[in-house]
């Protein structure tokens, strides 16, 4: 399940077969009413044969899928999970970066080498230093990350958290992912209790330890992933049984649709747009005859 902009810049619901990657539905709207109306056209026996639905973290796609397909397993796409975590970490990094003056070495550690923070620490170059113009010295990639994280204990903790989650998802380690997310959920509950107790006793501003946790940009995405509604679906993303399912193919189709819109300078009519999309997706060039043709002299 996903959505894509079609005619008049409106969002349309799109669904493809997870195995064959063929188009199943392209609807003019993306509301739950439109989706349910379309799939209710199939019998319950047909819908019961659907085993998995892969989607992003859209709030109502999971609910709609559970209502429509009684035997389905909802899978939150791995790419969207990692993207959300990375974006939150980048916000946290920028927040720490702004604590330093702009031309300083500390500022440049966070600013100019931000990609290194998202790479697996085990794969960072730790042997061959290179001259870094912004830092005015030679350093390895690992040294840059290490020195930057030493400047902020909170960022170091966030860095460790995101890479634990990265490894668990990439290695299809459901147990580690579940352990990390449940540990966070428990700690978040404890912080919520502390906040309630502090407000009841003292009121006003929270102490520094609670405020630092509360202001961390990773709190929101991790809280989203660990809700009762999403947790089981997120764990399915790391399940080896569902490793072959992702939103990659549908994102590729969305890219083609965007290209079609651009080439056609937009289409005001959704029906014509849909026909053009179906034609383009189903178009297969004729194979050239590989047999050699004898030349008659």
TrEMBL record:
InterPro entries, A to Z: Transpos_ISL3, Transposase_DDE
Occurrences of domain Transposase IS204/IS1001/IS1096/IS1165 DDE (ranges): 2-277
Organism (species): Ligilactobacillus agilis
Lineage, broadest ranks: Bacteria, Bacillati, Bacillota, Bacilli, Lactobacillales
UniProt xrefs under Pfam families: DDE_Tnp_ISL3 (PF01610)
Protein name, UniProt field: Transposase
């Amino acid at each position: 399940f996903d959505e894509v902009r079609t005619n008049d810049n409106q969002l349309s619901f799109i669904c493809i077969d997870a195995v064959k990657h063929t188009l199943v539905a392209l609807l003019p709207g993306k509301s739950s009413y439109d989706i349910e109306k379309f799939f209710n056209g199939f019998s319950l026996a047909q819908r019961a044969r659907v085993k998995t639905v892969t989607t992003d973290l859209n709030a109502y796609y999971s609910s709609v899928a559970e209502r429509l397909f009684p035997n389905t397993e909802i899978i939150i796409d791995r790419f969207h999970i990692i993207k959300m975590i990375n974006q939150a970490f980048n916000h946290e990094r920028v927040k720490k970066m702004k604590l330093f003056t702009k031309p300083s070495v500390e500022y440049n550690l966070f600013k100019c080498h931000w990609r290194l923070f998202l790479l697996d620490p085990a794969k960072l170059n730790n042997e061959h230093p290179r001259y870094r113009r912004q830092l005015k010295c030679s350093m390895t990639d690992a040294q840059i990350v290490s020195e930057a994280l030493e400047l902020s204990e909170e960022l170091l903790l966030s860095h460790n958290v995101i890479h634990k989650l990265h490894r668990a998802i990439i290695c299809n380690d459901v147990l580690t992912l579940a352990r990390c997310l449940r540990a966070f959920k428990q700690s978040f509950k404890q912080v919520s209790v502390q906040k309630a107790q502090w407000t009841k006793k003292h009121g006003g501003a929270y102490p520094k330890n609670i405020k630092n946790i509360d202001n961390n940009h990773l709190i929101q995405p991790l809280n989203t992933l660990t809700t009762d509604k999403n947790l089981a679906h997120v764990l399915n993303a790391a399940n080896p049984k569902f490793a072959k399912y992702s939103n990659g193919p549908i994102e590729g189709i969305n890219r083609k649709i965007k290209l079609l819109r651009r080439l056609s300078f937009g289409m005001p009519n959704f029906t014509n747009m849909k026909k053009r999309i179906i034609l383009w997706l189903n178009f297969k060039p004729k194979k050239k005859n590989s047999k050699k043709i004898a030349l008659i002299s």
